[in-house]
Structures are given as C-alpha cells and as structure tokens.
Design a protein that fits this description.
There is one protein chain. The chain is built from three helices and 26 strands. By secondary structure, it is mainly beta. The longest helix is centred in the N-terminal third of the chain and has 16 residues, at 13-28. It has a 22-stranded antiparallel β-sheet that branches. Strands 5-6 form a two-stranded antiparallel ribbon.
C-alpha cells in the first residue's frame, strides 16, 4: 500500500516538483502513444496521489499447517500474493522492467510440503517439495524517461506485447541423516529442480533477422529452461584415539541441462548444454591447546564436463556455424584456516580458499561471432579459478557483539558482464576484489533496547584494455555500492518497535564518463508490532520519508538509455496479521 503526503516538505522538493511538471507536460504533448507494441490507454493526466492509491495496493496471504504423530512429522504450506503498481517518492508510477525481470503488477503462488520420519535406528528421513509460480498481469507499458532533464521512466496503461513474463520453479529433495553411525554423522542428500522463465521482449538489435523481417522491427522475447539433478554424501567423525581431530569425507555430484530460445520466432538463442560436475572432498579440523587454537584444511577434486551440440548463432552475431563438443576440466582445490580464541568471547581468524566456478556458459556461447569455432577448443569456456583470503576479528561477550573482517580475491581469468548490442555478454578478464565489513550489536542498559550497525566497503579492478595492468574499476553491473546500516530495536511485553537507516554511499568510477558515478541515497524504515490473544498485528513502513532516488543500476549502467532510467520505490506501508492456532 503506497501513501504520498503532499503536505510534507522533503529535501529536494523543488527538483522533484520540476520532474513532475516536466513529466506531465510530456504526457500532455501526446506521448501516450504505442509503446513497445502496446497502445497506451488514453485518459486524463495522472495527479500525484495524496492518500492510498488503488493501483499500488497489494495483498498476500499464507498458511502453514504442522502435524506430528510418533516418528512422523509433516508440514504443509501455501502462499498467494498479488502485487500492484509501484510508485516513487514523487508519486509517479515506476517504469516496468519486463525485460530483465519485474515483480510489480504480478500474481504469484507457492506450495510447500515436508515429510519427516524417524527410523528405528535413530536416523531421520526427510522429503521436501516446493513449487512457485509468478506471472505478470501485463497491464502497463514503459514510458521512457529523459536523462537530460532528470525525468525517470514511468508506466502507463497499455497492452504488453508477446507472452506475459513469468517464472516457474519446482523442487523435490530428499535426505537421510544419521548422527550416530559408527560414532560419526552420515548424511545422504539428493534433489531435482526445474525452472522455466519467460522474459519480456522488445525490438532489440540482437533479435533482428533480415530473413524473417527485413524492416528491422522484429519483436521477440526469450525463454530459459533449466533442469538440475544433484546429490551429496558425507561422513564426519572424530579420529579414534585422537578426538581433537575431526575428518569429513564426501562426494558431490551435479547434472545440469539448460537451453534458451526466442519465443515468438521459435529460434535457438542458447543451445542446449549438459553440464556435469563430480567432486570428492576431504576436510579436517584440529583443536589445539584445549580449543584455544583450531586449524582447518581440506582438498576438493573438481571434475567437470560440458556437452554442446552443433548450433548456429543468431543473425545479429553473424549466423555462424559452431561445432559442438564436450570440453572437460579438472583441478584440485585446497583450503586452510586458523581460529585463535585467547580469551572467552574474542576470536581472530584467517583463511585461504580456492574457488572453482564455470562462467555463464549461455552468454558465452550465444555471443560467438567468429566462424570455425570448435567448442572443445574455445578458451572462453575455461572455468573461473579464484584465490580467496580473509582476516577477521570477532567479539561476543556480555552485552556487546562485534566483528570486523578484511577479504581479498583474485582471478587471472575472471568472468565479467559487458553490455553489447542491448544485451549483456560475458568477457573474460583478470579480476581483483577486496573489501571490508564490520558490524556491532549492543544490548543497552535500557531493558529491551538494542542498537546495531554495519558497514561494508567493496572495491574491484580489472584489465579492461588488455595492457596487463589490473587498474580499471569494475562497473556497476559487476560490483555493489558501499553501505552503512544503523538500527534500533525495542521490545517490552507484547510491544515491539524497530527503526532502520540504510545509507547507500556514493561511488565514483575511474572511467572517462562521469555519468556512471553513483550519487548515493538514504532510506529510513520503521516497524511496530503488538501481540494480542488473537494474533500479532504489525505495521511496517519502508522508505518512511518518501525519499526520491534513482536506483544504483540506473545510475551506473546503460547511462545513455532512457528506457533504463528507473527511480526507486517511495513510501510503502505493509499492514499484517499473524496468528497461531
């Protein structure tokens, strides 16, 4: 539920009023025309609301039922949610982003079931099933903004072309856990998941094909389908006769099949790829000096294979024939760490770990432009191996909890998202990332009152020009903004109160364009809850001051694209009730 109070005088009011005047003038000029293939509804200009706006009202209802009888226990749940339009701090509808993903103006539902059974041996068998569906209602179309006059994109009533964007995900998993098998803990897990996603479309250059539509106005949209099957088995126990040493041995397996197509023209955008990962591992933990010092270390053998059939890229990439193949990679990764606790409550730690991931294979394959490529020899499919290090301190004693850590990571052949022809593709470059995080929580002498805070600083560099020097800042598509969080929580009897301030700090990038710099913004949230005999009633307010701001992605990525110039959500109230029976 969105509320905008016109009587309030926030910071930057003059700037916001000018945005509103410019936007209304543009609408009066007749810009409510066909947008992205849909005809906008002709109606009087929209006024800034001074109360609850019906279009912005959403609702969510859910229930969870539990059952237990001897060794059997079960839980069943269902949730249904309808989301309305979103409004910014100036009272205007936020532009719909159907291409990259959108939850406003959508309906979703989910079902959940869990069955557990305790075997006579003491082991526990558990089954979990879940299904989630979300589909847009397609009631709005995007009205591009104007960066030159600082007017963000908005939404107007209209018909969205193509199929409504949607997301479907379902999961089935099973596990067997025995905490006393031969003096140790045995775990066997398996899962099957399936996802199907339809994205919003557009007349994008990437989708154009003169053989289908020589006019260059071909509309299309993509759909992604993925199926994953995996499992894990592990056994952990202390070494007989040497109880201070605990060993864990196990094996991971994953089988992934993914493909991406264009819905309207039935073209293959990303060919079907079958990914297989097999990884045995061994981990050890050793306590020394009565637990004052704890050492950890382990090895993991990664063996992966990717199978791709022959395919042809889209016309925009040259319609080149690519020879399929089954490239495979293997590596032994190791990790090590140490924890020192000289006094009760104070811990210092350091760790090193090698990471192994496969880059976004789909983006790499669909972006091939040179003819004669053989997938078996295509270097861009090489995995990302990163070196991760961390040092930290923790204090947890009495009324004070605090932590601070510094971490840095590097990869000689990293994976970055780079915008080309309206679509993000993957580019392989060296990457270095470092960051600092700190948090504190204090239970004050005032009964029921606690104060907390957190700080996160992140910096990243890459070698974008290939000169061998990792000295260019990662852009907004590859690194998040620094932030500070401050919060106060108070609870007494049936009453609970909390307030939070979120500071997203400004960031400058060392590129030539100052337009990519992030200005930063601050959001305030509040929450109040009261427990009664019939349940708990709560009222939450996000962006309490109705701050107007431009999102981090819009401020730092595609800074010349007026269709990707989005403002963030304004003041949003959520009234809820939760009861148990």
């Amino acid at each position: 539920v969105h509320v905008h109070h016109t009587a309030r005088r926030p910071l930057g009011l003059q700037r916001r009023q000018q945005r509103e005047l410019d936007l209304r003038a543009r609408l009066r000029r007749g810009d409510r025309r066909r947008l992205c293939g849909g005809d906008a509804e002709e109606r009087p200009e929209r006024q800034v609301p001074d109360g609850f706006d019906g279009e912005g009202i959403g609702a969510k209802s859910g229930a969870l039922l539990g059952y237990r009888d001897g060794p059997l226990d079960a839980s069943f749940g269902a949730t249904l949610e309808r989301r309305g339009a979103f409004f910014d701090g100036a009272g205007n509808r936020i532009g719909v982003d159907g291409t990259q993903g959108e939850i406003q103006d959508s309906d979703s539902w989910s079902l959940f079931a869990r069955l557990g059974y305790e075997l006579p041996t003491g082991a526990r068998l558990e089954l979990v099933a879940n299904r989630f569906e979300l589909e847009g209602n397609a009631n709005y179309v995007l009205l591009p903004g104007d960066r030159s006059t600082d007017i963000p994109a908005t939404s107007v009533r209209g018909v969205t072309p193509g199929d409504p964007p949607s997301n479907t995900a379902q999961l089935l998993s099973a596990s067997l856990t025995d905490t006393d098998l031969g003096g140790g803990t045995f775990v066997l897990q398996g899962f099957y998941s399936q996802t199907s996603d339809v994205f919003g479309g557009g007349v994008f250059g990437t989708f154009q094909d003169p053989a289908i539509d020589p006019s260059g106005t071909l509309f299309d949209q993509s759909a992604n389908r993925s199926r994953k099957l995996g499992g894990k088995v592990s056994y952990e126990r202390a070494v007989p006769g040497f109880d201070d040493l605990t060993l864990t041995a196990g094996f991971d397996a994953l089988f992934d099949r993914t493909e991406q197509s264009l819905v309207q023209t039935d073209r293959v955008w990303v060919p079907r790829s079958d990914f297989r990962s097999l990884a045995p591992f061994l981990q050890g933990n050793l306590a020394l000096a009565d637990g004052v010092v704890r050492l950890a270390g382990g090895l993991r053998y990664e063996n992966v294979e990717l199978s791709v059939d022959d395919f042809r890229t889209l016309a925009s990439y040259g319609a080149v024939e690519v020879e399929g193949g089954s490239p495979s990679f293997e590596d032994v990764l190791w990790n090590a760490g140490v924890i020192v606790e000289p006094v009760n409550g104070l811990r210092a730690y350091g760790s090193y770990a090698e990471g192994f991931t496969i880059a976004d294979v789909g983006r790499i394959l669909r972006g091939i432009t040179q003819p004669g490529v053989d997938v078996d020899d295509f270097l861009s499919l090489e995995p990302v191996v990163s070196n991760n290090r961390e040092l930290g301190l923790e204090w947890n004693r009495g009324a004070l909890q605090a932590s601070a850590s510094y971490f840095w990571s590097s990869s000689d052949f990293g994976s970055l998202l780079v915008l080309r022809n309206d679509v993000f593709e993957v580019e392989r470059q060296p990457i270095k990332i470092e960051g600092f995080e700190a948090s504190v929580n204090w239970k004050t002498p005032v009964p029921g009152l606690s104060l907390s805070g957190g700080y996160a600083d992140l910096a990243g560099r890459t070698d974008g020009d290939g000169d061998g020097s990792v000295d260019e800042d990662l852009d907004g598509a590859n690194i998040s903004p620094d932030r500070i969080n401050l919060a106060a929580d108070y609870a007494t009897g049936p009453l609970s109160l909390s307030a939070q301030a979120r500071f997203y700090l400004s960031r400058e990038f060392n590129d030539a364009a100052t337009a990519t710099d992030f200005e930063g913004y601050t959001l305030l949230d509040a929450f109040i809850a009261y427990r009664t005999d019939i349940g708990e009633f709560a009222l939450a307010a996000s962006n309490l001051t109705d701050e107007f701001y431009v999102t981090y992605d819009s401020d730092t990525v595609r800074v010349t694209d007026n269709s990707r110039f989005f403002s963030g959500r304004g003041r949003t109230f959520t009234l809820s009730w939760r009861g148990a029976f």
